[in-house]
Amino acid sequence: MSDLPQCPACQSPYTYQDGLMYICPECAHEWSSADQGGDTQESGIKDANGNPLQDGDTVTVIKDLKVKGSSLVVKVGTKVKNIRLVDGDHDIACKIDGIGAMNLKSEFVKKV
């Protein structure tokens, strides 16, 4: 008998483990073993697809974003490496090539 947890999304008993992640083959839900301990994640910041973000992740911008106070635009598909999660409305601090240091909202990025 397996001691793997049931899927939290659909309660399927047919989950399997892939590295540090658990995966449900019925609904394709993925979650980490750290998610099992009551508090889902320390920061709770998620990308546009609902994937949890962590410091040091690489993300891609999913929408053209105007830079306030400038005529510059962060284009769709811009890859941002080594993000840092911060408190506040704009919860990702990062450096973008050609633009510099700025803060982004997690709802406009997806994890790579």
Automatic annotation (TrEMBL):
Domain Protein YjdM C-terminal span(s) in chain numbering: 45-112
Q: Where does this protein have coiled-coil stretches?
A: none
Listed Polar residues bias regions = 33-43
Q: Which domain of life is it from?
A: Bacteria
Gene3D superfamilies, sorted: 2.20.25.10, SH3 Domains
Q: Which residues form the Protein YjdM N-terminal domain?
A: 4-32
Q: Where is this region: Disordered?
A: 32-52
Q: What Pfam families does the record point to? A: YjdM, Zn_Ribbon_YjdM
* Matches recorded under InterPro entries: YjdM (IPR004624), YjdM_C (IPR013988), YjdM_N (IPR013987)
Q: Which PANTHER family match?
A: PROTEIN YJDM (PTHR30305:SF3), PROTEIN YJDM-RELATED (PTHR30305)
Q: Which NCBIfam families match?
A: phnA (TIGR00686)
Q: Which family does it belong to?
A: Belongs to the YjdM family.
Give the protein name, as stated in the record: Alkylphosphonate utilization protein
